[in-house]
Amino acid sequence: MKRRNLIKSAAATSSFFLLPSGLRLGAQTPSNKLNIGLVGVWGRGLAHYDSLAEENVIALCDVNEARFPDALKRFPNAKTYTDWRLMLENKDLDAVVICTADHTHAFIANWAINRDLHVYCEKPLAITVNEARTVRANWLKKKDKLATQVGMQRHAGPNFNRVKELIRDGAIGELKAAYAWGNRQIRRDSYPIGDGAPPQGFNYDLWLGPAPYHPYSPAYFSGRAGANCLEWNMYWDFGAGQIGDMGSHTMDLLWNAVDCTLPTTASAKGEAFNADVTPVECESHFDHPANDWRGPITVSWYQGGAMPRAPKPYIDMTKIGHGAMFKGTKGFLISDFDSRMLLPFGDDADLSYYKPRTAETVLPELGHFQKQWLDACKNPSLKTACDFEYSGNMIEQMLLGLVAYRVGKKLEYDGAKGLVTNVPEANQYLTKEYREGWSLDG
Known about the structure:
Blueprint: H1 3-13, E1 35-39, H2 49-52, E2 56-61, H3 68-74, E3 79-81, H4 84-87, E4 95-98, H5 102-114, E5 118-122, H6 129-140, E6 148-151, H7 158-168, E7 175-182, H8 204-208, H9 246-258, E8 265-270, E9 282-288, E10 297-303, E11 322-328, E12 331-335, E13 340-344, H10 369-378, H11 388-407, E14 411-414, E15 419-420
Helix pairs in contact: 5-6, 6-11, 7-9, 9-11
């Protein structure tokens, strides 16, 4: 019996493995540890070392072989790989953690799901609408046995639940619109000109993966300490710019509260289109249908200095670098990741209409974000906060906004089919061409 099946069988028949809260009892034993492969041992990969040390890390994969010695000091029994496709053929794996460049996230995640592996993927889950839809649909077929999580770690903060409670409990009346924004500005003009061979031990061809070939430049990957995604994710072939960066975290603050799936329309405007580089200043707007607790709403995203209109002229929302605002029939709620404020207006400005939750109904805190996923791997009946359905819907909306920006028209979107119905030429931007030999569904 494969190790992951043994784990699930034992967890289903014994209370030893899981408390009702989802927390494992006591010290771990070899039989209830997961065999995990870490793809990307540096950068974001370092943030997972402590959590993964409680499990069996049996595989390390990185395109930069210079990072293996340090990683092996922490996980001395792991086998090393430079190609994640070869790592996924390891039959002893139960789960993978993906900390690679954005343009490979959907590929590794989808291949892993095809091999019945649990997946933790750093944000963003995808950089095209089609990638998001493919990974989400593939996981939904197996959601009862595979745990997934996208690394939007701020979601575990208490403010996310408090904002959600206030919105759901009517603190601002009936929800009408929601806005999120981020002020980061990283400007580039064009793809760098390749100026030399990659560092020794750095497999640049594997780093490119499915992306079109561009000659190596240290502007993509310098190898220096502190280098991160901000060196490459603003280029169309490697990322989605701020939507894939802080946009994933900030829209999550909004998304958690409004309970949306996919939009019916998308429109966007911003700086002049650049075929090489994603926009810095841009705003996008989406219509979402009503659900069982609210009416139809509009959701908006602003980046690079673009901002929604403040409720009052004396409120300077530019002081909030990354935040969200919710507009209701009786007021506004403005929030950053850690705090929030209510701005009631009208005859009910005393908040007398608001009925807060009782101690018994307050949403519980998530606790350790990575451990939540590890627990769900051992008992997939436990739900993770940012699974591939929740996160896939969110990033699909955001990426559809980039499509609207590229064509400069308001799009009508059929979320069931994944098609723009009124602007046929927009559909070509829902996906992209990949290098020969690379398949999203391997």
